[in-house]
């Protein structure tokens, strides 16, 4: 029997590089690597058009798509993670000293379902008692899942205005840094990655973010995920071995990267992203598998439900392939 060729769109990270290069093969299939830059563009193509057999996907986009009936299923392979007490900025003149002060304010985020926004709102609501319904969320991009009905307190920025410009003028009082909001210039569909070099320096809502993140993690066990691997359902049905093959390949690639990261070399890809948090999350900052990530996945589903992004809390067993069971089948 001939070996099938499957298309895959995944960004190159330290933990994926060996699979992307072909150094570590995916057993039983040939991978046709599709380069999509920025990778965010692949997310939209996958949930709207099932454009790839295998694709990296933002986890909130995936949960929303799954709840909407898009025929894809995730594997418990997590390509990127970060905490969210940092990266949320406020204007000095906005009267925002505490998270509760965000109520009654206008806040910018690229799209309401952006995973960064969902994690941060979850922290604000569940840790600091913020009433999300009392914040006016201003977006300047489409949602990846077109069937998503946005809450009444989400409005689109006026045509031709960026969140960066609205923050600078005081039309919004807070926003997410970088490409999640006010740190990006240009239309989102054309420049998700485009940095706005003229962005003023705004104050972080939390000035001791790393300390808060460490305490929150130790208390809750929640370590936010940002990238997972999804596969079209018809492909998983046709090749039952694929889930285990992909998991093994990406786990092996991650372990190869980890050996260098744990060795102390500062030139390892993504070193800066994980070096500060490894002292409290452990030597493997990208743990894969369901059980190791159950608290995190359950929190993400709860936050998405609380924020009116999904109509019900989707059980983990519906969201992810149990690789151990797949391997035994």
TrEMBL record:
The keyword Lyase applies. Keywords: Lyase. Its EC number is 4.1.1.55. One of its GO terms (molecular function) is 4,5-dihydroxyphthalate decarboxylase activity. The keyword Lyase applies. It is an enzyme of class 4 (lyase). Pfam families: Phosphonate-bd (PF12974). This is 4,5-dihydroxyphthalate decarboxylase. It comes from Mycoplana azooxidifex.
């Amino acid at each position: 029997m001939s070996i099938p060729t499957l298309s895959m769109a995944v960004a190159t990270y330290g933990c994926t590089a060996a699979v992307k290069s072909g150094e570590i093969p995916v057993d039983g299939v040939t991978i046709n690597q599709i380069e999509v830059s920025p990778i965010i563009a692949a997310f939209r193509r996958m949930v709207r058009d099932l454009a790839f057999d295998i694709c990296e996907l933002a986890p909130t986009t995936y949960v929303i798509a799954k709840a909407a009936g898009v025929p894809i299923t995730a594997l418990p392979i997590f390509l990127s993670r970060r905490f969210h007490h940092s990266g949320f900025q406020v204007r000095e003149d906005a009267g925002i000293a505490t998270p509760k002060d965000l109520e009654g304010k206008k806040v910018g985020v690229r799209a309401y379902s952006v995973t960064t926004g969902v994690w941060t709102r979850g922290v604000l609501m569940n840790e600091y008692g913020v009433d999300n319904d009392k914040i006016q969320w201003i977006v300047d991009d489409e949602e990846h899942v077109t069937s998503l009905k946005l809450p009444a307190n989400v409005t689109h920025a006026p045509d031709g205005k960026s969140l960066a410009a609205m923050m600078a003028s005081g039309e919004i009082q807070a926003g997410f840094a970088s490409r999640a909001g006010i740190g990006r210039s240009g239309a989102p569909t054309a420049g998700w990655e485009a940095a706005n070099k003229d962005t003023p320096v705004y104050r972080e809502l939390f000035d001791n973010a790393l300390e808060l993140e460490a305490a929150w993690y130790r208390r809750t066990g929640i370590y936010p995920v940002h990238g997972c691997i999804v596969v079209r359902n018809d492909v998983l049905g046709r090749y039952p071995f694929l889930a285990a093959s992909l998991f093994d390949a990406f786990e092996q690639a991650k372990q190869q990267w980890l050996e260098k990261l744990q060795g102390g070399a500062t030139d390892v890809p993504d070193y800066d992203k994980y070096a500060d948090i490894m002292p409290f999350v452990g030597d493997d900052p990208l743990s894969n598998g369901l059980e190791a990530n159950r608290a995190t996945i359950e929190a993400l589903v709860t936050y998405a439900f609380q924020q009116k992004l999904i109509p019900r809390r989707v059980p983990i067993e519906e969201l992810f392939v149990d690789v151990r069971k797949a391997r035994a089948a």
